[in-house]
Fold these 2 entries.
Entry 1:
Amino acid sequence: MDDYMNALNNASVDISGEGLLDALNGRADSSMSASAAPPPVPRKAARNKQSNFSSYEDNLLCKSWLEIGNDAITNTGQRKEAFWSRVVERYNFVGEGKYLKRSQKSIMSRWEYIKAEVNKFSGHMAEMIRSNPSGMSDADKSVAAAANFAAIEKHNFTLMHCWRILKDEPKWMELKSKMDTPQNSSSSAHMLNLNLDPDDPSPASSAGKRPMGRDATKSAKKKALSSGSSEYASKIHDLNVQKIELFKDAEVERKARLDEIVALEKAKAEEAREHRKRTLELEEKRLALDQKRLEMEAEKKEQEEDEHILAINLVECQPIQRLYYQELQQSIFEKMMARRRGPSQ
């Protein structure tokens, strides 16, 4: 009807029957050709893919989750949207200028991955702690748990840094206990057992099968542990070799340090001995000089006294004094004669 009215209003179209029919046919042909053309395919806008999370960003995310979750003011009754909004805000605030600014979707997706992987590893670590193999340290147990994780999950555990942050936190333990409840663990246990059957071509085909029994589960677990035992033994062997090499290097370094200390102590002792020897020699020389000086002073004093006695005029003395000084002068003459003769005469 609209095409008909447009044809009537168009002054260039003949209003006779044939003209009107031709106009309507031309309109229809043009509309059909336009409708037959395929619609243009819209091009998707190119998106800039963000880089993967680094270990430092994982640590920041775990710490942000713990801090917001442990906030005594906002923790009670905190809704999920508000909680994650605060986590994202803290993450981007602390990491500003150091890491990429992440969206809430990206951070929540990364946290779900961290939560699942760390929870699986925690189970392997708890099993290793319960078995408590003799002669294994905590570091050896974590290595063994990582080997069991790799054997069962078919990929390595790469979030050890996150596990160290979360493992002893009450907030994480509370979340882990919720994740380990039957309603949550049934689906995860089913997913863990999907690839244990080599005849099962796809996960979807096992959805309607009967769940594995206790004996079958134990058998599958033993098979997985036995497959990882060789890798575990190899890693333990490598660790022992590394420990022995480190011990040898440390022993060589310790011996070198001891030899250096002994050499230094010997040098110090020799230097102290030489110092004491020089000090004694100097002291002996000083004493000899002092003795010689005292002898010279005594000799000089004795000479002065002898000269004084010899200078006395015996004629002017009283008879008693004359006899006294005469004897002194005589002894002085004898001493002088003895000095002249010398010790050999």
Note: The chain has eleven helices and no strands.
Entry 2:
Amino acid sequence: MHHLSEFHKQELHNIAIRLEHSIDNDKYACDGYFDYVCGRNRPLFSILELTIALLQLPVCNDVATNVDNAVKAITEAKLKNPNLQLVVLPEGFNAPYAIEYFSKYAEKIPEGQTCQVLSQLAYSLKIYIIGGSIIERVEPDKLYNTCTVWSPSGKLIGRHRKIHLFHIDIDIENEGGSFFNEGLALTAGNDLTVVDIAGHKVGLGICHDKRFEELARAYRNLGCEMLIYPSAFCICQGPMHWELLQRARASDNQLFVATCSPARDNKSGYVAYGHSMIVDPWGRVQREAGATRQVIIDDIDFNMVDAVRRQIPIFPQRRTDIYSTQLIKQ
């Protein structure tokens, strides 16, 4: 079992003391309304501005090292930014992303070592943690690519199993010469995952999930104001599609989109593109990382979601008498 070091425990204690004296009530507002134009039902007390951190971290072949690096990065981010409320880790943040490694590094959820550390860290820092993704073992021969979400109480409040397994076979002339098929080792998930983050509905996907507009639309129909995709996006398609897909999902559904990639390692067998990103509801890139290790911290202003949906009210303008995106499996 991987436990927090004494140094990390002391750092968490120091942060907790600071937080007791830095509670900012100005970020809370009373809405309690349903606005058809905005298409979402917000709780009575919701935070209109959310401080988020995307941790673009390197990944090595040792789980303990990867998890410890994540703990250090999260702790440092919270120490420097006491108002930090949500941290997002990359897809496959605790182990190498490769077919031959999936079974070797798979863990049970929530009793595995990685989950135990994330739970304790979320509770100690009083933050939400979207734990990128890890390979989840359900049965000896059944593995999922799974994103976990932890509340400030340390409780597991979301578990998203990647719905669309990554499968590409790109010809060399199309910036590729690449083949990858998660289906050779993993099982696809069957459920959408919506979590409540500080009073806002957030829809979850993992990497390849963001290529599917129907999924994003289903999340919008469920009232989501933000979509988060931990993503180890292939470098072969990164320059062409990475930003394009995120801006499309944000613009089509008038919500925030955030992605978190591992840091690029050109010596690894699978090279992630990097460039973790936040896109606003207008479809503009709000923040973007480079290719290497980087931590992005920024504010999500949910008032912008309302403003965009009010000024360009496409949600009530849809011709659902002609077409519709229906959620088949609840």
Note: Confidence is low (pLDDT under 50) at residues 21-37.
